[in-house]
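User: Can you recover a sequence for this backbone? Please restate the input before giving your answer.

Assistant: Of course. Working from this structure:
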């Protein structure tokens, strides 16, 4: 970025004299992506919008040299006894010595929690922690919380720098997050179907190949109005994409077929990640009009990956159900069913 002089700075000599002290960029937007709660071992998703002296606005993904990032970890804030994902607002210091997120939870706890589950008075390090200072944990744009951050809020300070690399006191911004939560337990119950009855042994396995199919739920559709019962952070793509990838790799299959893969997710996430794991892929977008999503037009489709050690691609065929319905399937005479099932659907 060239530190050009903006027109409004004009020819005023007094302004020019202090030019060296002016930051080269200003922070115009800084926010956590969609009310995200920081989660252990998952990069905290933040959006940083900067503006240079010519008034050009851009997102900094970590390449801008004229801004300094600083992550701090705050004092422990215990979660609610009833709601492990909510920060507590009230601490009962008289009876249960537990923390609660609301008056309702406090009253419920005060009146119903048996003595065996009460906290101890000696366990009052929370109050001491409250006085503790914020401690620096990183000086990079991105930060991946660790176990030490659990139950602590994080703070990101974004400070623009002057031409001489001096920190500018103004034009910066600060984001403070909710408390960091532990990595949620995975609910794993995958059923593998095989064409083998009885014992599976190495010799038989050598002659077989494993296929997995998954509708990954495109970020496009993962919104709070459709999934109001889901925590916002758990719906975010930055969080889900890591879990999905972990799952894909852990299955160690030979062919992966995926639905609802966004074009950008295929290019930026699935393809490079799976290439590293030994897979080649093909992608086909649905024929629907792209949808405006997070600042750009995107569409989803099907992706198929195959282990290059076992398979190679000889052809790519796309089945367009719209076209199919007009011939074979319409012959069933059930037009309504055809429309519901196959509208702009494809197979790869
Ligand atoms: Zn609560």
């Amino acid at each position: 970025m060239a530190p050009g002089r903006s027109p409004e700075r004009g020819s005023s000599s007094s302004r020019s004299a202090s030019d060296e002290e002016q930051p080269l960029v200003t922070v115009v937007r800084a926010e956590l992506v969609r009310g995200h709660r920081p989660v252990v071992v998952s990069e905290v998703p933040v959006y940083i919008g900067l503006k240079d002296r010519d008034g050009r606005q851009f997102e900094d993904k970590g390449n801008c040299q004229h801004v300094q990032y600083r992550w701090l970890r705050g004092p422990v804030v215990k979660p609610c006894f009833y709601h492990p994902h909510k920060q507590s607002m009230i601490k009962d210091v008289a009876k249960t010595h537990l923390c609660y997120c609301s008056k309702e939870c406090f009253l419920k706890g005060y009146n119903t929690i048996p003595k065996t589950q009460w906290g101890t008075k000696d366990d009052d390090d929370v109050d001491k922690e409250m006085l503790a200072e914020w401690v620096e944990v990183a000086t990079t744009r991105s930060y991946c919380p660790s176990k030490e951050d659990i139950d602590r809020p994080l703070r990101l300070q974004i400070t623009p720098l002057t031409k001489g690399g001096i920190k500018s006191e103004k034009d910066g911004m600060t984001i403070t997050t909710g408390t960091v939560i532990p990595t949620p337990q995975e609910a794993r119950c995958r059923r593998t179907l095989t064409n083998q009855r009885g014992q599976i042994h190495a010799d038989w396995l050598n002659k077989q190949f494993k296929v997995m199919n998954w509708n990954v739920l495109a970020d496009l559709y993962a919104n709070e109005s459709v999934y109001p019962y889901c925590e916002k952070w758990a719906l975010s793509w930055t969080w889900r994409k890591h879990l999905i990838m972990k799952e894909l790799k852990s299955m160690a299959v030979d062919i992966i077929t995926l639905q609802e893969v966004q074009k950008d997710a295929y290019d930026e996430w699935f393809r490079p990640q799976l290439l590293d794991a030994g897979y080649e892929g093909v992608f086909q977008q649905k024929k629907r009009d792209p949808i405006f999503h997070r600042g750009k037009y995107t569409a989803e489709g099907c992706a198929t990956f195959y282990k290059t050690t076992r398979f190679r691609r000889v052809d790519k065929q796309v089945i367009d159900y719209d076209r199919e319905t007009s011939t074979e399937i319409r012959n069933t005479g059930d037009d309504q069913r055809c429309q519901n099932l196959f509208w702009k659907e494809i197979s790869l």
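That completes the design. The radius of gyration is 27 Å.
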